[in-house]
Amino acid sequence: xxxxxxxxxxxxxYGILYRNWDLGLPGFYEFGELTSxxxxxxxxxxxxxxxxxxxxxxxxxPDGTIANISDPSNANFTGDxxxxxETSINPADGAKANAYRHYTTHDYSAFxxxxxxxxxxxxxxxxxxxxxxGAPSEVHGILxxxxxLAGCDIATDAACIGAARVGPVSRMWKTYNKDFxxxxxxxWDPFGKGKxxxxxxxxxxxxxxxxxxxxNGAWNPPFYALLDFNAACTDAIFYSNPASIGAAYDPTNxxxxxxxxxxxxxxxxxxxDSSGQxxxxxxxxxxxxxxxxxxxxxGSLGRHLPMLENYNRVDGIGYxxxxxxxxxxxxxxxxxxxxxSVSSNYNALIVEAQKRMGHGLQFQTGYTYSKQLxxxxxxxxxxxxxxxxxxxxxxxxxxxxxxxYGRGAEDHRHAYKFNVTYEMPFLKSQKGFVxxxxxxxxxxxxxxxxxGHPVDVYVGALGNGLCTRFASTTDVDQNGIPFDLGGxxxxxxxxxxxxxFIGSNLNSVYSSGSPADGIFTDNHRIGCGEAGLPxxxxxxxxxxxxxxxxxxGTPNTLFTNPAYPGGATPFLRFGxxxxxxxxxxxxxxxxxxxxxxxxxxxxxxxxxxxEAQNLANHPNFDGVQGNLxxxxxxxxxxxxxxxSRVMSLSLRLAF
Length: 655
Known about the structure:
The chain is mainly beta. The protein has a domain at 101-218 and 266-374: TonB-dependent receptor, beta-barrel domain (Maltoporin, Chain A, Beta Barrel). Helices cover 6% and strands 35% of the residues. The protein has five helices and 26 strands. The chain has helices spanning 158-163, 211-215, 432-438, 537-551, 555-560; strands at 4-20, 28-31, 82-89, 100-117, 122-133, 137-138, 144-146, 166-168, 179-188, 196-207, 225-230, 266-267, 274-287, 291-309, 337-358, 361-374, 406-407, 414-423, 441-450, 454-455, 582-583, 587-599, 605-613, 621-624, 636-639, 646-654. The strands form five sheets. The chain has a 17-stranded mixed sheet that branches. Strands 2-3-11 form a three-stranded antiparallel sheet, with no helix packed on it. It has a two-stranded antiparallel ribbon with strand order 7-8. The chain is globular, with a radius of gyration of 31 Å.
């Protein structure tokens, strides 16, 4: 069509997902510590490792439940005190839960695209794409979701949370039909000589909601009951093998109920499909024939990104009303509520130089200065940087998730790469003995550098599953100093709360030593709540200051404060340290190779290579422990990349 290259198209997709993930079966227990594999006091009638019964283990009650644990810090395997239990059943009759589901989806798309050569110097790329990602249905109608949230704000309304109920639905959310993605791009040669180009573009791209987000709703009642029992929440735990909910199923008291609470996987019924806005503007210039220089700006905006939040907890920022239970809704444990109300952005300046092979030399080098900001970098990690190091899907505040807005987990502010190949210029023809011995040599190298990514500092669970010490506990650290109050500042029993920073400034806390020994000079300057403190004179004063800030002088004061848990107390608040404030160690690596090619015939050659990965034998540390109550806090727990120098010799025959 002359100067236009027009394309029009579309698609229709029918999707099927068969799923049979019976989470919670056969069940499991969690203990505070595992000092020995001893099920009690073995005897001929009750050998070690046998099924526990009241007759062979005095810690069990006659009905099979664990005796009341007044201090869950005593939870341990040796004493048969689990602090947590999870199992699943069919809530309709108490039988084994059925997790089989047959889901179907219907997706459609249409697009129009035009590549328009406006002039010999300017080309435009224009397009528009429409997407429709249909909400899934279940062939047998086995879908359950919140059914009574219309007109209330589940993030801030305590009454709404307390009254929330799940029931059968035909769809988990409403299909959104307005996903229109415009596309625009251009390439311009200002001088028409083919040596310079200015390029740019913008586009909106949509994606369907991740299957894991909605398909986990298979574990919702009334079709499935995933039961959690937590001693820290005063639940009675039934200890048996396999795990059990205890007494026989009572049809007059259907599950869920306050004594048999279940965990939910629910969704915002008004979810939109996630989108990314990508944009780019750059200039390229060819100089000296084989050298290409470029500078460009690149950015991306993430919108309607998925997040997992637990609204069934006390929000120290959002709630003022009295909430006597640990969980506002007594029928459920965690809501595990899925929505997509958070955003991200990435901006980068990239400069590069690339030389094509000429005179035996080619190289490419580039530097990137960038910044990534988001609320959560990984769906199941909540607002932390590393999912495996924190409780999932919990944010600083239910009502204000943007308080977690900060550096993304993959934010490497500076990045530099350089690779080079050089063929030695002498005796390349390899004539005679000297030519074969000294000719045909080449070398290559690759160097990369990344500044450290963020380290999120938080206060996680202690070994017994608790976020903070109980009032009756008088433990001290290895220096004989009492543990801080720390941890669960709003007392909602949700761990990974950010601590209170009590250092003088952020830069003063970093150590110049090995990351394996810790990246901080003084852990206590990071915040209240760590497990081990340096034995210095000022530390005790800092502990007193920290505890006084949140407890009127001692840890016990907060727990005995008559205002708790009425909600009016000023102590129900969060720590002051933001998300991903600190950064971990940088990554530096260099690989090198030396090669010799022997010409055997016109069509055959033998190549000898001596190569070294991590030539400098430099360890690159990562995985800095961010949990203040972990004894390894601040220490790098991983080596990434090539851990140590690796050298190799090889021969390659080509013919």
